[in-house]
């Protein structure tokens, strides 16, 4: 049993051994990570772990998702709990004894913890099924890391899996840095950023490096574009509704004395509101085309809105923090002072139904959260100690939210302004 946890899981489940089971499952998932929308070995482990529980289970059509519905013993609405299951193309250097056995693939974002915790929540809630005032939908999602798996699951009907639209949805994410071990953090409104991907291809006219006047130099043009885009952000975006634009890749040319024909760069854009997202999108087109025109070259801009901002419902965020505070004490449940510029495809769920996304500190106790390797780093480590707490927190969010709905009838998502 971990030091963080006060025995609540056992009293909640009425059965011991949960933590050890979750650690075993998490390590098995970690050893055999998979990326993308189809995670056959991960899905098999999840299905095996859910086997024997009183769940209605279905799997995805266009992706390797698992949706499980638990019917409560009392009538009531449905709520959704989500865990993402996919890993990253990262070569693991964490040094943990259960490190990845798949070359070049690692659970570097801790989604193995989320998956195991959601299995734990299913076990805890199944043990208290008769008391539940409604149904719980467990959303085991592949393809979070850039594949939009949540959007696909929403399209395939996960929000209505219980036969009625869920009234609330919750998910959590572990952090190997920033938050101290075991601390839960969330906030009302934007929690995570929108993420867009930009690819710019500039076509000029190649030639000899000694005679640029006889060519149309795309190198000079992209250099100006990269700096002009930073200036565009500072002149276009409200400082209190910010955006980040980072050019992370730039490729052109073959030799010191050849003016190339083309140049290409890629950027990520992060923002926290539809207004700023739109302003930056327009600004990128305007700036790139303006600079291209000034240089007499052609530019093609491919601007893709990947993920919307993850926006918590204010009431649901307050409820989630209250629940975490009740479980773990005030010192371990804090309101995040500001959003962070990472992004999440749970945003597609929160676009449809009210809910809250929570951060959970999983930095090992022998590391400093201020300097520990961050999520996605090959050295990132997520401490097993949070597994049971994460499971209990998810289970309590579902059970208490259904209880709340039984006491106060919930307005339908369409009535409720979000
Ligand atoms: Zn992640």
TrEMBL record:
Residue ranges of domain Peptidase M20 dimerisation in the record: 198-282
Signal peptide: none
Domain of life of the organism encoding this protein: Bacteria
InterPro entries attached to this UniProt entry: Amidohydrolase (IPR017439), Bact_exopeptidase_dim_dom (IPR036264), Peptidase_M20 (IPR002933), Peptidase_M20_dimer (IPR011650)
Pfam families named in the record: M20_dimer, Peptidase_M20
Stated name of the protein: M20 family metallopeptidase
Lineage: Bacteria, Bacillati, Actinomycetota, Actinomycetes, Kitasatosporales
